[in-house]
Amino acid sequence: MQATVKWIDGVMFVGETGSGHAVVMDGPPEHGGRNMGIRPMEMLLLGVGGCSSFDVVQILQKGRNHIVGCVAELSAERVDAVPSVFSKIHLHFVVSGHDLKASTVERAVKLSAEKYCSAAIMLGAAGVEITHDFEVIEV
C-alpha cells in the first residue's frame, strides 16, 4: 500500500492513495488552517468506521441477508495531553433490511470487531477502548 501527503499551505495537505483517490486535510483557524478539509484524526476515525462497515456489510451479504442500509455512527474521546490520542471509540451500527435477525447482525458486528477489522484491532492493541452496538430497522 502506498500513499503521498503533499503540503499545500498553512496546515492544509492533500493526501493521495496508491489507488488514485485524493482527500484534503486541513486544520481550524486557531491552528493555522482555513477549515477546508477534514482533520487527520477524523480521517483515522472514518477509517475505523469504513473498515468495520465494510466487514459488517460483506458478512451480512455473504449470509444472503437482505440488507438495504448500514450506517456506522462513531463517537470518540481523546486524551487531554500531547499526543492527543484516542482513548475510546464507540461504533453504533444502524442496519436496515428485510427480515433481519438481531442475532445475525450481532454476529456480523462481533466478527468485524474481533477478527476482521484491521483498523479497529490495531487501535485496540494500542490501548484504545473500542466498543460496538447496533440496532436493526425493518424496511
Report on the architecture of this protein:
The protein has three helices and six strands. With 139 residues, it is of the alpha+beta class. The protein has two domains: 1-38, N-terminal domain of TfIIb (Single Sheet); 40-138, GMP Synthetase, Chain A, domain 3 (2-Layer Sandwich), CATH 3.30.300. The strands form two sheets. Strands 1-2-3 form a three-stranded antiparallel β-sheet, with no helix packed on it. A three-stranded mixed β-sheet has the order 4-5-6. It comes from Crenothrix polyspora. This is Protein YhfA.
Summarize the structure.
With about 140 residues, this protein is of the alpha+beta class. It has helices at about 40-60, 100-115, 120-125, and strands at about 5-10, 10-15, 20-25, 65-80, 85-100, 130-139.
